[in-house]
Design a protein that fits this description.
Length: 253
């Protein structure tokens, strides 16, 4: 199938490029920091190591996926490779979904590689859910980076837009809590601001509810607490894919 072939080509590009070395470097830095914390922490050294390591690996995985996807797509556009591929007698959906599948597979591989060192600190059951959540989160970031790279056609703009979407989705719950806090003086402006914050929150995925470090520290969540946020990510991934396909079909060949 053309989609599977394109996905394989994207994976080969990721393997032959600098992504494996960047991932290995990020993993080494995180492990060195965990070793340093084990020497300086006075109490609760093991939980502190696990919490810091998990947070760093999650951030590193998301950053690597966003940068790799943006750079790969824009390099292909600048080299006229995308135009050459579009000239082939293949549906545009195959072009787009093949690339998305390849980048999603890359995100899954990174999630698995970053989860392996955590076996030394976390229980296998909790780590399995954390890894699955990180893989889905990375896939969502890959879809966002692919959409912004094809739309904006500039690496810095695409990376900034992807990072902005991710950071806003991660911090929206805290922003809502601040907007609705008891110390906020009631006023028309405050109600308008709260309404705007809630409206923006409806348009974003709840990334603060997935890949949580406390799963590794205190045990896996129950099925409902895990399935709800995961289902929301799948829905948002489908919406991003649909938006990307719509924009891709509008492009000139």
């Amino acid at each position: 199938m053309p989609t599977a072939i394109l996905a394989r080509l994207v994976l080969l590009e990721a393997r032959r490029g600098g992504l494996p070395w960047l991932a290995a470097g990020g993993l080494a830095v995180a492990l060195l920091l965990a070793a340093f914390l084990s020497q300086v922490a006075l109490t609760e050294a093991r939980p502190l190591q696990l919490a810091v390591l998990a947070a760093l690996l999650r951030a590193c995985a998301v950053f690597l996926v966003a940068v790799h996807v943006s750079a790969s797509v824009i390099r292909e556009m600048n080299d006229k490779g995308l135009e050459l591929m579009l000239s082939l007698p293949l549906p545009r959906a195959s072009h787009y979904l093949g690339r998305l599948a390849g980048h999603a597979a890359t995100a899954v591989v990174i999630a698995l590689a970053f989860a392996l060192p955590l076996l030394a600190w976390a229980s296998p059951g909790a780590l399995a859910l954390w890894t699955l959540s990180l893989a889905l989160e990375g896939t969502l970031v890959a879809a966002a980076a692919l959409f912004f790279a094809l739309t904006l056609a500039q690496p810095v703009a695409a990376i900034a837009a992807t990072a902005g979407l991710y950071l806003l989705a991660r911090s929206m719950a805290a922003i809502q809590a601040i907007a609705a806090g008891p110390l906020v003086e009631p006023s028309v402006a405050q109600r308008v601001a709260r309404f705007c914050v809630d409206a923006v929150a409806l348009l974003l995925p709840r990334l603060d509810a997935v890949t949580r470090t406390e799963w590794l520290l205190y045990g896996a969540p129950d099925a409902a607490a895990f399935a709800g946020p995961m289902g929301a990510l799948v829905v948002y991934l489908a919406l991003l894919t649909a938006a990307g396909l719509f924009d891709f079909y509008r492009r000139n060949a």
